[in-house]
Amino acid sequence: MEWSSAVVWTCLLGAGLTLAFSTTTSMTGPRPPRLIDCVFHHYANVTCRWEAGDTPTTHYTLEVVRGKNRTLKNNSRFTCTTTDTSCTAITNSSVRVHFCISVIAHSHRRDITSHRPCQSGRIEVMLYPVPLNSVKPVRGRPHCLYVTWERIVTVFPVSFMEIYAGDLKSQIEFTAEGQLNVQVKNVTVNDTSFLVCLFRPDTLYTIRLRHSYKGPQSPWSLWSNARQGRTGEDAPSAAPAFWRRVKQTDKNDWRLVSLLWKPLPRFLANGRVLFFNVTCQTESTQILNDHGSCRDLPHTSTSCSLRLPAGRCSCALTASTSAGTSPEARIWLPGASETELPPPEQITASPLDDNSLDVRWTAPATQSPSGFVVEWFAVGENSSILHWERLNSSCTSLVITEGVKPMERYVVSVKALYGEQGAGPNRTAHNYTRQGVPSACPAVETPKIIGSTVKLVWSPVPEELLHGFIRNYILSYSTGNHTAKRVLLPGDVHSCSLKNLSPGNYNISLQANTDAGAGTAWINHVHITSEDISIVMCVLLPLVLTSLALVLMACLTQNKMVKQTLCQYVPDPSNSSLALWKPKIALEDVMIRQIIS
Ligand SMILES: *[C@@H]1O[C@H](CO)[C@@H](O)[C@H](O)[C@H]1NC(C)=O
Ligand SMILES: *[C@@H]1O[C@H](CO)[C@@H](O)[C@H](O)[C@H]1NC(C)=O
Ligand SMILES: *[C@@H]1O[C@H](CO)[C@@H](O)[C@H](O)[C@H]1NC(C)=O
Ligand SMILES: *[C@@H]1O[C@H](CO)[C@@H](O)[C@H](O)[C@H]1NC(C)=O
Ligand SMILES: *[C@@H]1O[C@H](CO)[C@@H](O)[C@H](O)[C@H]1NC(C)=O
Ligand SMILES: *[C@@H]1O[C@H](CO)[C@@H](O)[C@H](O)[C@H]1NC(C)=O
Ligand SMILES: *[C@@H]1O[C@H](CO)[C@@H](O)[C@H](O)[C@H]1NC(C)=O
Ligand SMILES: *[C@@H]1O[C@H](CO)[C@@H](O)[C@H](O)[C@H]1NC(C)=O
Ligand SMILES: *[C@@H]1O[C@H](CO)[C@@H](O)[C@H](O)[C@H]1NC(C)=O
Ligand SMILES: *[C@@H]1O[C@H](CO)[C@@H](O)[C@H](O)[C@H]1NC(C)=O
Ligand SMILES: *[C@@H]1O[C@H](CO)[C@@H](O)[C@H](O)[C@H]1NC(C)=O
Ligand SMILES: *[C@@H]1O[C@H](CO)[C@@H](O)[C@H](O)[C@H]1NC(C)=O
């Protein structure tokens, strides 16, 4: 039978084949279809897939025989027919019984049948999704949730006893509130309520459940309905970032100290913080009784103040939730007489954009710090607003954005921390993210006119109105139809005399100039009546005695020269130089060059 069918099949291939080839083929025989797998649905159907054999096939029949012996004629038989390689037979029977499955490949001349051993339908069952009833927190176990589902007897072909025995494989899918990533984890389910302990405290989770029957051939059920549950609170896993500011020291060397801390981020708080607890002690571990405002600190507080004695002391901070207290954060305040600790070596604060500054520093070379604190504030801003950040010792840069705006001058300082020795002195940088022009003019006193001299005295533009680093002042004056004359004065000069002015009406203006440009101008009109009085004022620095003669000569020369107008000012002695301080006898453009140089 087998031999003759092989001969028929080889003839079908055509006459062109060699004898050798047809002999080989006839030796192996045709390959039957191969069942890949089946999926059973309880009291519904079974779907099987197979691979085609190597004979031309017109269609297939899937035959499903209920029972353990496919040849018994009185067993229930279910079939489906297809030209494809999978089909679904309606069984309408429990999956707990055995099924014998065969695929029959039909061709014009003969049928080829492939069998597989009879086995329980449950091995390949796809369970129905179960109803998920509740997801609840577990008292005292903030990482766990208690999940309850329901076994509906009529549709769930695994008994309670089998569930207790561990015949289910299960997975949960969960998403934490506000997070996008969905996680799927294997869980052990030996009952219709079970504990899962892989969560974060105080977090709302959305959960779904799915099962499969033990063994690798049962596919996962569809996911259950979703339920939400929140894990219980835990004690905070870390203390808040803690820092201090010494505000003032009184005559007995007691220090008024502000203690500062940051709210705990959610992932460290593990619940709702109920209160903070601050305790300060002296070096001899004597707890200080004067708590200042540091008593009964509510969850909203981020600072408190108290007085600390002159000696070395330390303060500790903890945060508490309903479930417990965090580890403590401690800061040390060295006594006034203790040796100076090294500051960071270099600091720069460069703008990245309008709202951020890149702060970089170098760790002290002589002693390695345990960390750093970066503090910053805008000049002129309410001085009780101090921004700060604590960093570990491996950080030597920080991008600051909190409270950072363009056209404000920031004072950025870095201190190194040395564990129990406390914090070292600061190193400070000033900078702007973007400079602007001054929004106010210099406050000039009423000009004093003495003969042909106009004396101007002004106070600097307040730093918060400058919006940039002052580079110089622009003084200009004009009379009649003459073009205005401009004089540039260094930014640290705050007075100037215009001398030997011809009689007439003058417009005088003064502007502060930053890197971004000149700001609002102060403008004044003066009238010079007499041209006879010509007092030459030469302001001398007493320490530059050698230049005295020179100056006198200069003054004399000036008297003889064609009447010149010039501006004299008293430089700040701290940064005066001879170049700047040369008596100004030359024409204005010369003087300007001197000033700029
Ligand atoms: C088989 O049964 C399942 C479960 O009742 C059903 O969802 C599916 O549609 C059925 N398949 C076919 C082809 O009838
Ligand atoms: C199936 O039934 C047939 C006929 O009754 C019998 O000959 C055969 O041994 C049975 N096979 C098995 C595996 O029980
Ligand atoms: C089927 O037939 C066998 C013997 O032929 C018998 O033992 C068996 O009880 C029958 N089964 C049913 C369900 O009738
Ligand atoms: C399935 O079988 C039950 C009884 O066993 C019957 O009541 C029901 O009508 C059957 N359903 C189908 C779709 O054949
Ligand atoms: C399920 O497992 C847990 C822990 O492994 C055990 O405490 C519990 O008794 C088990 N339940 C059943 C019904 O076996
Ligand atoms: C989860 O279970 C499946 C099947 O039981 C297994 O293949 C897989 O490796 C398991 N995954 C993990 C992460 O244990
Ligand atoms: C605050 O901390 C101190 C010292 O650790 C402790 O004695 C006190 O009971 C704490 N207070 C509260 C309200 O927890
Ligand atoms: C201020 O910023 C400029 C860049 O705009 C930078 O070159 C300079 O070094 C910064 N100054 C300080 C003190 O960091
Ligand atoms: C500064 O701010 C604090 C709190 O932010 C406020 O109590 C105080 O009155 C402010 N002072 C000024 C001068 O604005
Ligand atoms: C220091 O802080 C950085 C950034 O916060 C972190 O990546 C690093 O692991 C920390 N190093 C140590 C030693 O804690
Ligand atoms: C830096 O230290 C000096 C001297 O102790 C102090 O006057 C100044 O206010 C400090 N600057 C900052 C920004 O903390
Ligand atoms: C100023 O110029 C105007 C015309 O531009 C002329 O009429 C006037 O006489 C001039 N005045 C002086 C003081 O030169």
From TrEMBL:
TM stretches of this protein: 533-556
GO cellular component assignments: plasma membrane
Top-level taxon of the source organism: Eukaryota
Pfam families cross-referenced by the UniProt entry: fn3
Keyword field contains Membrane: yes
Gene3D superfamilies: Immunoglobulins
The keyword Lipid metabolism belongs to this UniProt entry's keyword annotation: no
SMART domains: FN3
Signal peptide: 1-20
UniProt keyword list: Glycoprotein, Membrane, Receptor, Repeat, Signal, Transmembrane, Transmembrane helix
CDD domains named in the record: FN3
Membrane topology: Single-pass type I membrane protein
Domain Fibronectin type-III: 128-234, 343-440
Membership in a protein family: Belongs to the type I cytokine receptor family. Type 2 subfamily.
Official protein name in the record: Fibronectin type-III domain-containing protein
Organism lineage: Eukaryota, Metazoa, Chordata, Craniata, Vertebrata
